[in-house]
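re: ur question from yesterday

yeah so i grabbed the chain u mentioned. its 119 aa long if i counted rite. heres the sequnce exactly as i have it in my notes:
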Amino acid sequence: MYIVRVEDSFAAAHFLTHYHGKCERLHGHNYRVRVYARGPELDAGGMLLDFGVLKAALHEVLGALDHGLLNDEPAFEGDPSAERIAALIFARLAERLPGSPLHAVEVFETEKNMARFEP
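ran it thru and got these structure tokens back, copy pasting raw so excuse formatting
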């Protein structure tokens, strides 16, 4: 089995409406995002998925979130948790890369805290 990973980042603000504590107040993160593709076969060029293609798609998806208020995104239903952010990024990548071997998305809110989405 082959696995490739690319990484990028974005900065955004959010607040959690169904959380009681400091995260219910408006705050921001410098998010780090890792995207994994996984598959048993390589293409004729010896690649699972071209890094450049995957990086470009990720950069485009994150660009739409960068320096925004994540609560404005309807998919988050007022609670843009790291889990929901990871799922949204995966879905938007899948739209841009149909048929690709996307496997998982990890979203780090901090150096030590992350959520992972695998369909």
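noticed a couple things. The beta strands are 2-14, 27-39, 102-108, 114-117. also The mean pLDDT is 95.
anyway ttyl
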